[in-house]
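Example record for the data management plan.
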Amino acid sequence: MAERRKYPVGIQTFSEIRERNYLYVDKTQYLADFIDNGLKYIFLSRPRRFGKSLFASMIHSYYEGRKELFEGLAIRQKERDWTCHPVLHFDMSAAKHMVEAQLDGYLDYLLLPYEELYGINNEDAKEPNIRFANIVKAAYERTHQKVVLIIDEYDAPLLDVVHENQNLVALRRTMQNFYSPIKSLDPYFEFVFLTGITKFAQLSIFSELNNLFNISMYDQYSAICGISSEELHTQMHSDVQILAERLHLTVDETYALLKKKYDGYHFSKHSEDVYNPFSVIKAFASGDIGNYWFESGTPTYIIKLLQKYNVDLRSISEQEAGVEDFDVSPENMTTALPLLYQSGYLTIKQYDTMLGLYTLAYPNEEVRIGMIRSLASNYLIPVSGSNSSFVIKFVKAVVSDNMEEALSLMRAYLAGVSYRLSNKTESDVQTIFYLLFSLIGAYVKVEEQSSHGRADVVITLPAVVYVMELKFDGSADVALKQIDDKGYLIPYTADGKRLVKVGVNYSSQERTINEWKIEEV
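Corresponding structural encoding:
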């Protein structure tokens, strides 16, 4: 068995990772690329927990001249003078869920240590932007070296209020004021690096700093954060071997499982395959596969945005869009699509060169199932545990080849939450079925409703395929007839499995399914 390494779960400080010999996936070649190409102002957008802060910390260590931390890494292969520059590093991630007065206090907390370091008396300068400018100038004058500015998660104070007009305007004004000196301080800067999830166009960073290079959707930087498929198969191959042994799987089976659960992110037209780094590292550290990234916290603004824009839950994934539809500022959003993409809940799956259209979809099983569970707990019933209990019982009945029992369970479940189902339209009921069967899809293979000539639900098991059609205030016979007339069984006839068609009717009066018929072909 290969030697198990130390995994930096939750550690985002480059110096600590290198000094304590934690696993580090080398990304220093990207910083070397910035320097060699004379790039001075860089903006990088990536989802949360994707390695942005670690990359920012690596830049910090490099410009402090800490050459010893880079031994054996790509950037050491190039000749560097390793000049020590003053580094101003502002981490805005802790400024979430703040009102205006709290945000002012947090900016004071960030600025005060630098004022003390460079001997600045701020009694005559109270405004954060003036204090910020004074620090930059004092750092340059004291060290005779240009300043490196790093602003990590620059948009964190705004994301949780992106759906609120009043709070968003006040907090945006505060941040706009704070960032406003950056352009005028250009003569004092050696390098400027900003990270975030989205682009707030009305902040001075994007409206005034017109030389800011947004690298977020360039092919050559697609794997700047996260773990590329190549990195997983080379730098981390021994880690996969260890995980395989702990899971009692072959190495190939483990690679396939990691790909299914954590791969699938693409950030440009011709992106490298990128795995979620947080989940992969957690899997290595724990020796198990889990929904680590999603369970680390689903931002409330995502759920609120879906509600604000009345998003059809069945159509979140597999959307076609031009880049102007999903890589836009929150101020210009007319749908939830931009933040779903920028936050990592959707990713690029395909690019049509001729039409200039991107196909956006869930990146992997972790996100798809996590999203469905999160939506279901908000949409179906207040107590999410009831959903889980029903799903487990339903799956057991189906796997036992007892569809009659499974549908009886569904009738009882829906009747038990009928107060949530009053005044529902056919579309609402279809959404309920979509969510329920998507939850079931975590355990058995379920194909959800499609507009491409497929039944509402297809459940595939090792020996049998159930093809199900739902009717709203109709009849089970009509549902069965549609399965036959539309040829929904045809795609499955070559599998050699038993085929069972199921017609189900939902009664708006009874607010549950009230009739079904099961016929084996």
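Summary line stored alongside the record: The chain has a mean pLDDT of 89.
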